[in-house]
Amino acid sequence: MRKIVLLLTASLFVLSIKAQENKQEKKTVSVELPQWVKDIKLSGYGMLQYQAQDPYRTTTDEEGNIITEKNASNTFNIRQLRLMLDGKIGDVAWRAQFQGSGSSAFLVDLYAEWQKYREIRVKAGQFKRAFTFESPTNPIDQGFYSYALVINNLVGYGDRTGEKSAGGRDIGVQLQGDLLKNKAGRYLLHYQVGVYNGEGINTKDADNRKDIIGGLWLMPVEGLRIGAFGWTGSRAGVGTKNRYALSAEYSKNDWTFRSEYIHSQGAAAPGKNLGDKADGLYAFGIAPVISKKLYAKARYNMYRQDKSWSSSKTMYEMGINYVICKNLQVNMEYARVNDRTIANPDKHNYNFVDLQLDFRF
Questions:
Q1: What is the mean pLDDT of the chain?
Q2: Full domain range(s) for residue 289
């Protein structure tokens, strides 16, 4: 009898432990992650590149001897690798973006934006400045071997003031929104204005003077934007800069046309021996040959580093973009270049080719 009691007691003890374990397992399984954690999304893209330009130029000296001069590059390159974390906490969307370049990695974006109302949104952190239509465009969607020359030189991608390449970004606060909704539910007016350090990415304000940038554009018909932008500010050790941009874009039914003119007044970085004015213009079209698959493209691309034709660089570009699948595409481009900043006038004109493999994940 005693053995039976002991056996029953032991069995009940084991069953009790097992029940507690099962209960604990059920509790563990039933735990749910907060919604903001579930909303976090990891994404990214990479851009692999091959470039070449007139590898050799053959000339003759005064005695008639043939001279072959090496005159450019022929190289494979990793244009970009980006990793992004996006999420949302209530009405606030946030992003953290990192870029790999060579043997280093650095922070590109880190911002949060209150998005409760379409008419007024507030963004704070490090992000692209509120200047031009082209700068905020993803480089894969932009469609060409690089952003336009004037964008690279006057919007913070390697600025004439000496600011390190910042991808058009700075640290600050921005207010933006869409207004005047029509009967079809489409907004007709967009505004944006921001206050920034004026020094580029991952850099504190060095002169305690802020850059102020604003933009305003109309959207009179679907797919069309016509806008203007202004920028006033300074850079430590260089001085003031005042810029404006005039922009127009039509993008609809797989067709894209865009043109922008940018003017800059203000000193360049010490040692560059440039005047206090610069400007540039680009205009391009991307047209579907096979919808969503194959596109033809052409671009006029000009920048004058001291607002004179003797300082101009102009590229006449044409090419194709082929979408292999949703997240993979190949871009090919040829350009005839006229670069008057080269001292030897015999070398002003040359050929340039670019081939890229772009992927997203």
A1: 88
A2: 41-360
